[in-house]
User: Fold this.
Amino acid sequence: KAGVTQTPRYLIKTRGQQVTLSCSPISGHRSVSWYQQTPGQGLQFLFEYFSETQRNKGNFPGRFSGRQFSNSRSEMNVSTLELGDSALYLCASSLNRMTDTQYFGPGTRLTVL
Amino acid sequence: AQSVTQLDSQVPVFEEAPVELRCNYSSSVSVYLFWYVQYPNQGLQLLLKYLSGSTLVKGINGFEAEFNKSQTSFHLRKPSVHISDTAEYFCAVSGDKLSFGAGTTVTVRA
Assistant:
């Protein structure tokens, strides 16, 4: 069974631009969660989508948004990029609930210049 | 709200020696606890999880953890480490979302 895939793996943007990251979950998984990982803040929860609905949201500004499609693939968008948005963005999928094992993708490394 | 505190940021250990990574949690609801490992330039991989039942949980790669409700702890142990265990380890608690600790970097030396 193929794992969670994230595209692109690396991305360089400049301040003020916007970016869209993509995540394809494991086949059959309906829950997709997004996390931001930085050396200073560690792993922080961004949001979770289940059956195309945002089920939970972390404490991030409205510049961070996401969506999920009917095939469970998910995208997250960051508008008006700031230097502090430089991070590894991880996507995780699970069958249904947050208590199910979450399977993580390799991440997208975003650098904002 | 739930939170996790990993008590050690870095743990150096010699090959074939035992290792213990400490994790304390706080949660106002039912507790589901996890340990994940992150190898360099990779995503996270589940080592083990506690949902209910036996307080001693066995995971992959010889790791085990013990859930202690009275001490609100979920420490991770391995009796004999290998060089390949060098990685960052994260404790996490699940309530309405998965909350991670700051991570413990384990460096195994020959």
Remarks:
- Chain B is about 0% helix and 55% strand.
